[in-house]
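Justification of computing resources. Each target in the renewal requires a structure prediction run like the one illustrated here; the chain below, 70 residues long, is used simply to show the kind of job we budget for.
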Amino acid sequence: MFGYAGRILKIDLSNRTAEELPTLDYAGKFLGGKGIAARLYWDEVPPRAKAFDPRSAIIFSTGPLAGAPG
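Resulting structure tokens:
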């Protein structure tokens, strides 16, 4: 799909590890970075996790028009 870098970088600060994931599973189903970020948060964070819980997440993403000319 045009407009996506095709990669998600998942960094675990507790374990000091990084993992690269493909966006192919998400890009066709969710609109833009906000939709993909919401799905990632839903999949990764337990329902009752508090803001400073180690299982919580901070997600940075861009929208579908990022990098578009003009």
